[in-house]
Request: fold
Amino acid sequence: MQVHCSTDIVAFREILIAWGKEHFRPFPWRFTESPYHILLSEVMLHRTQAIQVVPVYTKFIERYPDIRALAAVNGEELHQVLSSLGLRWRIDLILDMVAGLMSRFDGEVPSEKRDLLSLPGVSDYIASAVRCFAWNLPEALVDTNAVRIAGRLFGLEVKDSSRRNRRFREIIREMVDPVRPREYNYALLDLANQVCEKKKPRCVECPVFGYCKNGALSISKKVLEIQACDSI
Ligand code: SF4
Reply:
């Protein structure tokens, strides 16, 4: 069975979300609905391993618990704090973002996508992640993880350009659970990290292998290998 009709998609989401609850990675930014905290975590997570972000994020939020606290510090102090946390390349970005939030949004993170995208350093992925995790809105998080899983589920070739490909974007968007987008997207991220890994997907352990073209192929290949071994 592959995901190709609405009944399959509903079942796929159910299985993925149930698995996600059991395998939830408890990062600190997953226990807040503060748009500011979530926005900062997403900026920090860009091209950085989540495990490395944990201590940096925790210290940063302790020191600057809200946008006004961050806006009140002078640039020099912020440079010192962010450099000591290893966030050197994100300093100007964060400063510009806070300035934009203060001047145009009265110190609040906006929930409209176009407003989020108007902030310095906010990509389509970051804007969608903030909307999904802060407000539980049904946003598709199109990154290399989601593209890799979609490609494997549907047997589609994945290229560097696939993140911008309309078909991939539509598939990823259609699969998001409209009622529990936050739980769905956390589960998908955790599946990509723990099971459907880039180099070696662990299809035999995968909760959704029955819905996956690649999974079905890799498992039947394994069966053939076992049969070949048995017959030697
Ligand atoms: S069955 Fe394998 S390839 Fe398919 S989603 Fe699961 S781990 Fe990924």
